[in-house]
Amino acid sequence: MKVALYCRVSTEEQARTGESITDQRAALERWAAEHGHEVAGVYLDEGYSAHKSYKSRPALGRLLEDVQAGRVELIAFTKFDRWTRKASDYYKLQDILDAARVPWTAILEDYETVTASGRFKVGIMLSVNQHEAERTSERIKFTFAEKRRRGEIISGNMPKGYKLQDKKPVKDPETAPGIAAFWRAYLDGRGLNASISAANASGLHLAVSSASFIIRNANAYSGAIQGVLCDPYITEEEAARVLSTRKTRTPPTGWHYLFSGVMVCAECGGAMGAHRQKWQHADGSTGYMVFYNCARRYRSNKTECQNSVNVREIEIESRLLDTLGPALDEAADRLEIEIRRKKQSTAKTQDEKTREALERKKRRAWEAYLDEIITKDEYKATAGKLQAQIDALPVPVELDEDAPRRIRAAMPDNWRQMYDDLRPEFRARFWRSILRQIEVKPDRSMRFMLRGTGAEDAFTTRIQQPDGYWIEVIKADK
Question: Which CATH architecture has domain 162-244?
Answer without folding.
Answer: Alpha-Beta Complex (3.90)
